[in-house]
Amino acid sequence: MTRRHAEHVMGTVFSFDVRDGDFEHAVAEAVDWLHHVDETFSTYRPESVVSRLDRGELTLADCPPEVAEVLRLCDDVSRASHGYFTSHPDGRLDPSAVVKGWAIERASRILTRAGAVNHCVNGGGDVQLTGSAAPGSPWRVGIAHPLRPGELAAVVTGRDLAVATSGTAERGAHILDPHTHRPATALASITLVGKSLTLTDAYATAAFAMGHAARDWVEELEGFGAFAVTAFGATWHTGDFPELAILAD
């Protein structure tokens, strides 16, 4: 039986597609977790823990332990991406590019603990897929074409996958290259696939900032693949990208 729930939180819509397990209890716990994350990490809430930490009203020792965990993850991704990822994209503390994927992955674990071993959690197009859509049937995730509204650029199929896309379609050129402090414009979108949405989402942000250099970088990452649409509509994908149907010309 398929059961679904949508929740507006963290400035976007999170959707839960649960195929088994204790739906009501599991989703309620996962939703509570997402609202806690929003209250803790939102840079749009002046009273959030991260906002107060940025203003110097709190020290890291004053914050919940998950704040230190997320900031360590930011540092790890920055090192792995040669500085193309930063927790201070505009000079202020903003770990959002790690927080959403991390929060979704944790929500997925909550569902699994409740016996929902086949489910999908989607937060604004970044997806953690657990198990399968149905016995013998993989999940299918469409990748929106950033330059052709209403069309798909590719479809990813599989089980136990994380899929994350960074691009200009929804928010324009909002991702900065930390080395130049200018918007990254070489790519229209890049989609990464891995197992853990925490890293898959953060790496997608870093890869978009890299532009065309992202292809070689992702090729060197173990367990990740990438599919990109350039600013001029051409496409490329790494050799480790999973089974997909490329629909763009």
Note the main attributes of this structure.
249 residues, alpha+beta, eight-stranded antiparallel beta sheet, three-stranded antiparallel beta sheet, 6 helices, 27% strand, globular
Structure write-up:
The protein has 249 residues and is an alpha+beta fold. It is 32% helix and 27% strand. It contains 6 helices and 13 strands. The strands form 3 sheets. The protein has an 8-stranded antiparallel beta sheet with strand order 1-2-3-4-7-10-11-12. Strands 5-6-13 form a 3-stranded antiparallel beta sheet, with no helix packed on it. A hairpin with a 4-residue loop joins strand 11 and strand 12. Helix 1 packs antiparallel against helix 4. The longest helix has 19 residues. It starts with a strand and ends with a strand. The model has no long low-confidence stretch (mean pLDDT 92).
What is the structure about, briefly put?
The protein has 249 residues and is α+β, with helices and mostly antiparallel strands.
Secondary-structure blueprint of this entry?
Elements: E1 3-9, E2 12-18, H1 23-41, H2 49-54, H3 65-80, H4 96-113, E3 119-123, E4 126-130, E5 139-144, E6 152-158, E7 161-167, E8 176-177, E9 182-183, E10 187-194, H5 197-210, H6 214-220, E11 225-230, E12 235-237, E13 244-246
Antiparallel strand pairs: 1-2, 2-3, 3-4, 4-7, 5-6, 6-13, 7-10, 8-9, 10-11, 11-12
How many beta-strand runs? 13
Strand coverage percent: 25-35%
Helix content: 25-40%
How do the strands line up in the largest sheet? 1-2-3-4-7-10-11-12
**N-to-C CA distance:** 37 Å
Structural Rg: 18 Å
The chain-level mean pLDDT equals 92
Structural class: alpha+beta
Main β-sheet description? 8 strands, antiparallel
